[in-house]
Design a protein that fits this description.
heterodimer, A: 324 residues, alpha/beta, Rossmann fold, Alpha-Beta Plaits, six-stranded mixed β-sheet, four-stranded antiparallel β-sheet, 12 helices, 13 strands, 38% helix, 26% strand, B: 293 residues, mainly alpha, two-stranded antiparallel ribbon, 10 helices, 2 strands, 1% strand, globular
Chain lengths: 324, 293
């Protein structure tokens, strides 16, 4: 039985050191029930190492990570009750069929997992190939079988490490559809990825890691707002609108653009500006928010963390973490 | 997966888990099934059956037993087919049967680590200790099957070639054919005692090195080093405690009356190798990082 009160994932001061290499550097994570949580970072940032610690596959050098309040290293398989997923590519016995692989894993799960084999094979559309040996499967089919194997456990938390890696565009689209459906079904998803559009499309909360450290954790919407919530304005008289915007308190970064006026402001001041324009007899044709993309923010954060010296890295990371 | 949305709710959590762990016997059963499903498993078993056949055929062609043979059973083979399995055990005990045992024991953890399937099974509802126990038991089972298949083949071939007759023992007494048959299988059972120690050393090395070849070679290296030590003058005091010396404890069964002392000695000496290897392997397996694959 899992603890309903405890968050699906909570890491505190998580550290993993391999001799001279600090792979994970005091990582704190908070995945809440119902989150589709993106775990973002470049290759080698420490994402997979963190997930391995979450699943109890490797021992932290320091710190703790708990799943529904249970520490996998202390409580072993009990801590994985209600948890499923895979790190790196899902692996199976190539000399066994997909169905036999799932039968094996269901036997290791118990709790009626065997009765769900047909169901999960249908979900990932592998039923027609279920009797074929996994050794002959394509990468995409193995990814799908990995999802099927995870679903056997009837999870409340799915930990997926780069699930779309190596898939063709249709496979990636289908994987996103499936993840969205898992979330709709009430499964909390921790999704590690370096594919930013995938995360932007699927996730509501994210952690961005770089060189083993969390440089941002929080709501994706907050991150995008922090990245500079910009607006694009087109009016019946852009020249006068530019003057009014520049004179308006709380409106910053006002500039003439190719298609009108650009500026930054919070929602309250945007409302005030629109009233000022109306009072001046200027009609608003377009007033649209222009949020920074996750890609912009990701590179901004990681570039900042990659400052010339360690101090810059530390200060940048600290500021962003504090900002959340 | 283009139609995943066609089955809404199919994967929704439907029942709370009971938190009960599957029994270790179930994991052991699947370890055996994995072994049975791999072609290389049959390599060792096949060789264990082939060598007695080659021996019997070659002796039939030769037409007479070896003269000045070291083993009493070598001169007996033409008198009774039941001498063949005893002679084969004498030949195979030193290197071949430990090698067959090491082939699976050295591979059983390292192979899964290298292929990444160890992480697959360790993220299910089983504890690491259960997996280690199941793998060790599977490796022991394989060694047991290999020994008895080899013995059964040697017995069948020997009896087919030279008949089911009484056999002379190491004490120069004669035992009836049914009793000799019983002794053949009892001797192989006693040989299992040091072989289990070899298996446990193999599983330990497989767990620690994460490399199948290194584990198999390492296991054989340990037995070869012990065999070499037994040949070094001045180290005679160590002989009773060498694992390789226990490979022939079964010969106590082939004396009249039965000499139990080498068998009992073998039991506790082999425990000195088996228990530490098992404990070290278990503890290492519990704490090791699983990063392969």
């Amino acid at each position: 039985m899992v603890d309903d009160e405890a968050p699906p994932v909570r890491a505190r001061g998580l550290v993993k050191r391999y001799k001279e290499v600090l792979a994970v550097d005091h990582v704190d994570l908070n995945v809440n029930t119902g989150d589709v949580y993106g775990f973002l970072g470049p290759n080698g940032a420490g994402k997979t190492t963190t997930l391995r610690m979450a699943l109890g596959l490797i021992l932290p050098t320091d710190g703790t990570i708990e799943l529904f309040g249970r520490d996998p290293m202390r409580e072993g398989a009990r801590a994985l009750d209600g948890v499923a997923g895979f790190v790196e590519a899902p692996r199976f016995y190539p000399y066994l069929s997909a169905r036999t692989n799932l039968e094996l894993l269901a036997a290791l799960d118990g709790d009626g997992a065997a009765s769900r084999i047909d169901e999960v094979l249908d979900v990932v559309e592998l039923s027609p190939r279920a009797k074929h040996k996994v050794g002959g499967y394509s990468h995409g089919m193995r990814q799908r079988l990995g999802i099927a194997a995870a679903l056997l456990r009837n999870p409340r938390l799915m930990i997926l490490d780069e699930p779309a890696t190596g898939l063709d565009p249709a496979g990636m689209r289908d994987m996103r559809t499936l993840i969205r459906r898992l979330a709709n079904d009430g499964i909390t998803v921790l999704l590690s990825s370096h594919q930013l559009p995938e995360v932007q499309d699927l996730c509501d909360r994210v952690a961005i890691v770089d060189r083993g450290r969390v440089v941002y954790e929080g709501a994706l919407a907050d991150l995008r707002r922090q990245g500079g919530a910009g607006y694009r304005l087109r009016t019946t008289d852009d020249a006068r609108a530019l003057e009014i915007a520049r004179a308006q308190s709380g409106v910053e970064g006002v500039s003439a653009t190719e298609h009108g006026v650009g500026f930054q402001a919070d929602e309250q001041h945007v409302a005030a500006l629109s009233l000022a324009l109306a009072a001046a007899g200027i009609g608003i044709l377009t007033l649209a928010p222009e949020l920074a993309t996750l890609e912009d923010l990701f590179f901004r954060l990681t570039d900042e963390a990659h400052g010339a010296d360690g101090a810059a890295h530390d200060k940048g990371a600290q500021r962003l973490v504090e900002a959340t | 997966m283009s139609s995943v949305s066609a089955t809404p709710g199919a994967v929704a959590p439907t029942a709370e888990r009971t938190g009960r762990r599957p029994p270790t016997a179930r994991i052991y059963g699947w370890e055996l099934r994995k072994l049975v499903s791999q072609k290389r498993t049959y390599l060792g078993l096949g060789l264990g059956m082939l060598l007695p056949l080659i021996f019997v055929v070659s002796q039939i062609i030769r037409g007479h037993p070896p003269r000045h043979a070291d083993s009493i059973f070598a001169s007996e083979i033409f008198q009774s087919g039941l001498a063949t399995p005893v002679l084969m055990l004498t030949f195979l005990a030193a290197v071949f049967l430990p090698l067959i045992a090491a082939l699976v024991a050295g591979d059983i953890v390292a192979n899964e680590d290298g292929n990444g399937t160890l992480k697959t099974i360790l993220t299910r509802s089983v504890d690491r200790g259960q997996v280690f126990a199941a793998k060790t038991l599977a490796a022991i089972t394989y060694a047991t099957v290999a020994i008895f298949l080899s013995a059964a083949t040697a017995t069948a071939a020997g009896v087919a070639a030279w008949g089911f007759h009484s056999v002379r023992t190491l004490s120069d007494t004669v035992v009836s054919a049914p009793k000799a048959l019983l002794l053949v299988f009892a001797a192989n059972a006693v040989f299992l005692i040091p072989l289990i120690a070899v298996v446990c050393i193999g599983v330990l090395l497989s767990t620690v090195t994460r490399n199948s070849a290194a584990s198999i070679v390492g296991t054989m290296g340990v037995t070869l080093i012990l065999a070499i030590v037994s040949q070094i003058p001045g180290l005679e005091g160590l002989h009773p405690y060498l694992l390789t010396q226990q490979y022939f404890a079964w010969q106590g069964l082939l004396r009249t009356p039965t000499d139990w002392s080498p068998i009992l000695h073998s039991l506790w000496v082999c425990a000195l190798y088996t228990v530490p290897a098992l404990i070290a392997g278990y503890l290492f397996f519990l704490r090791r990082d699983v990063a392969g694959g």
